Amino acid sequence: MIRTVTAGALVLLATLTQAGHGVAIRDAWIGFLPGDRPMGGFFVLDNRSGREQTVVSVSSTAFEDVSMHRTIDQGDAVTMKPVASLSIPSPGQVEFAPGGYHLMLMGPQRPLQMGDQVPVQLRFESGEVATAQFSIKPLWQE
Ligand SMILES: [Cu+2]
Q1: What is the tens place of the pLDDT at every residue in 74-85?
Q2: Spacing, Cα 95 to ligand 1 middle (Å)
């Protein structure tokens, strides 16, 4: 079980909050890998907006390419599949965690190191955009 404690990682979505909605991204972190290897991004998306919210794209100024993936354990093989969009009922939450849903972050625009914070944007079907700061952390944490 991987646990992260990210002080102050609760990032309320300004646009959604202003609109009287409630979607929060919390415990946002990226598992560090050196060089140009793709890194996984993890967080909890908490939807209390009163309506279903669908994430349709993700991006970051710190990476050339960001996409949503899901790790699927097929018994004899573990594969990753792209996730085009992801709907979260309200109230409800989705956990992006190692072994399941994750962000795949490719091509860091500058060398990253432990402790860095990088912004990631989630775009919703409604057109609203949420930005959260993701902390670069060791991939394996007990
Ligand atoms: Cu992946």
Answers
A1: 899 999 999 999
A2: 15
Residue 40 has pLDDT above 90, yes or no: yes
For residues 49 and 63, is the Cβ–Cβ distance under 8 A?
Answer: no
Domains of the chain: 21-131 (2.60.40.1890)
Cα(104) to centroid(ligand 1), Å: 5
Position 23 scores a pLDDT of 87
The predicted model scores a pTM of 0.82
How remote is the CA of residue 20 from the centroid of ligand 1, in Å? 33
* 72-98: average pLDDT: 94
Alpha-carbon dihedral sign for residues 66, 67, 71, 76: negative
Q: Which residue has the tokens 């946002």?
A: 28
Residue 47 pairs in a beta bridge with 23, 92
Q: How far, in Å, is the centroid of ligand 1 from the Cα of 103?
A: 7
pLDDT of residue 21: 62
Cα 19 to ligand 1 centroid, rounded to whole Å: 33
CA of 101 to the centre of ligand 1 (A): 8
